Amino acid sequence: MARPDIPELKSLDEESLPNFNDLLHRLALIFQGLISFGDGTTEDNIDGRWATVADTGNADTEFTFAHGLGRTPVGFFVMNIDKGGVVYDSGTSWDATDIYLKCSAANAAVTLFVI
Questions:
Q1: CB atoms inside a 10 Å sphere around CB 112
Q2: Nearest to 47 by CA among 91, 109, 97, 2
């Protein structure tokens, strides 16, 4: 994610003070735990995408899906799995379109958050 272009603050006039206070309040809310993955289908304020895999296929066999990030992912969180299995990196390099994983349980339904 590109760093936003924020002008350097050299002084604060009375007209700018309410906006600055609002910014500080919003930052405080974020740092107090209002960081959110979203609702399970739509992302919120974390740079990532929700993905649902209805069936991972045979155990320990590579499956792939389009993640929609527009960049190469750096990792993933398993948010839900309907079997007693572990989802892990298959060893195939991820790219800006697809992610390649394996699951130790056969035919698992998995919900992931890809970052």
A1: 23
A2: 2
Q: In the structure encoding, which two tokens stand for residue 92, read together?
A: 């195939």
Report yes or no: 56 and 63 within 8 Å, Cβ to Cβ. yes
pTM of the model: 0.67
Distance of CA 102 to the CA centre of its chain: 19
Strand partners, 80: 111
Could you state, in order of their start, the residue ranges of all structural domains in the chain? 49-114
Query: What six digits make up the tokens of 54?
Result: 């209805």
| Residue-wise pLDDT tens digits, 72-99 | 999 999 999 999 999 999 999 999 999 9
Helix (H, G, I), strand (E, B) or coil at 23: helix
Sequence-distant (≥ 6) Cβ neighbours of residue 111 within 8 angstroms: 40, 50, 51, 52, 53, 78, 79, 80, 81
